[in-house]
């Protein structure tokens, strides 16, 4: 049982929440208008987590594409340098282009300087991120 002051307090809270109070001062229902606010908060938190996961996946994909284009440029430059030095047959830029295509990239630029140094730029247009480019230079050892 409530004392007289507590009973008035309970009735005031009950009226604010739209509840009924029994004659003895006990609440008929214990819910208030805030029922379901936790559900909305949980849904909002879930949405924030999903947005963060999407952003993390896009960053991971960008890193993977950057590594892929860099390795394709390195390998294409090495293959072109081998052809420029006469270790393999063929045009250095043609061989560099074929090597870049085999590694999932396209040859954007190729230049042979000094007779044996090959400068290559590759490009990859995959994924949700913008196109990635890679540069590499290869030649004989010093």
UniProtKB/TrEMBL annotation:
Keywords: Membrane, Transmembrane, Transmembrane helix. The lineage of its organism: Bacteria, Bacillati, Actinomycetota, Actinomycetes, Micrococcales. This is Helicase/secretion neighborhood TadE-like protein. It comes from Arthrobacter terricola. InterPro entries: Rv3654c-like. The chain crosses the membrane at residues 40-60.
């Amino acid at each position: 049982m409530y004392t007289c002051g507590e009973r008035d307090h309970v009735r005031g809270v009950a009226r604010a929440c739209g509840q009924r109070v029994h004659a003895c001062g006990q609440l008929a229902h214990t819910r208030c208008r805030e029922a379901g606010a936790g559900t909305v908060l949980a849904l909002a938190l879930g949405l924030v987590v999903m947005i963060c996961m999407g952003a993390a996946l896009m960053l991971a994909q960008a890193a993977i594409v950057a590594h892929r284009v860099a390795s394709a440029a390195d390998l294409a430059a090495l293959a072109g340098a081998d052809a420029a030095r006469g270790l393999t047959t063929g045009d250095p830029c043609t061989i560099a282009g074929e090597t870049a295509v085999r590694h999932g990239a396209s040859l954007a630029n190729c230049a042979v300087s000094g007779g044996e140094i090959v400068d290559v730029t590759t490009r990859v247009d995959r994924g949700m991120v913008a196109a990635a480019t890679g540069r590499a230079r290869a030649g004989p050892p010093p």
